[in-house]
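SEQUENCE, STRUCTURE TOKENS:
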Amino acid sequence: MTVSSVLVVGGGIAGVSTVAELRKNGYAGELTLLTVDPFPYDRPPLSKEYLAGAKELDSIALQAPEWYAEQRVDLVTDALVVDLDPAAGTVALSDGRQVSADRIVLATGGHSRWPDFERVVRELLDRPPAGKGIPRSTTGLHTLRSDDDADALRHVLLSRARLLVVGAGLIGAEVASTARKLGCEVVLVDPADPPIAAAVGTRVAAWLHSLHAVHGVEAVTATVEKLESTRAGVVAHIAGENEPRTFDAVLLAVGMVPDTALAKAAGLEVDNGVLVDDHQVTSHPNVLAVGDCARRRGQRRAEHWEAALHDGQRAATTILGIDAAAETAPWFWTDRYDLHVEVVGEMHEPDAEHEDVVRGALGEPPFSVFTLHGGRVIGAVAVDDPNAVRAARRMIDRGVDVRASDLADPATDLRKLLRGSR
């Protein structure tokens, strides 16, 4: 079947990469991009430069405003999709409009996950409409998924403001770093010790977590049992503490949940994400799904920026009936306290089959840590050492045999290892 029209629902990196890849590969049909936002913008700066006020929203746009017209993309902003009919190839908007297409791509992203004290939180918050972030909080409770969320949080991050961050993952740590730079008093609570060990390895995770104390953030290994909104602020009951603490604001940063409501209501298969095959096709052949809302059958759901980018590119090649680019090792990055951290592949704790190799001195940037299995790199994490991660990614993708001693020596040119030199 010739595809003469494509509709993409969602204006994050997954949605924008889908339309960009379609045009890049010669698609000449109708192309519509729907987004609930004022325009498609990048999400990572929301916890850093944008939150700090160093960047405004137009400076983090994924594409220049004129790009959409130049690429003949019908960009529809402030568009909330409330219904999907896969068989008819239509979606309905909240204002009553309907849009149809031969292929529909869902790039609906996700929503902030609620902690274990969900009922308490819900009693304190006005729930947002589907697809939009929490409106400016009147209770001191915040999440961070959209520009609206960041604006609300930015409004209260004044010097000496008391901020509780619940969850010390990537977003929580980034916000703690940003808030501390703004002069806030920050407490960071997470039951994991150390957080993000599965992603970067225990030793690097412990060092990264220790940076909070170095920069004046109080890191507490515990859970938050209850939150109460009072005239004095948000009262937090932290497990193991005899007295509650009072904060001006609380950020709930305990992960995200894929936005599958539209897909589920339309009868598509959903299980911790809209289920897709290796070509991003859902259980209905006319509908594809990409980014945070999607999960490949038999795999874990990816939530990182580059994974969403590649999903969109793969969906475009599927629609066009051409081969997708070869997949590479997964990669992501994070920034905290003026340090840039990149991770590629899968880190693994040292055991009988896996070796942990440090290049440089751990805790003294720049440095890198590699995981080896059978004499080959399968993962790497680097702090202020992007060249090491780029080389590690190529080693993983090419299956290059390496010696641990060569990797550990900062004088070794990693490019020579890629060529198989010893």
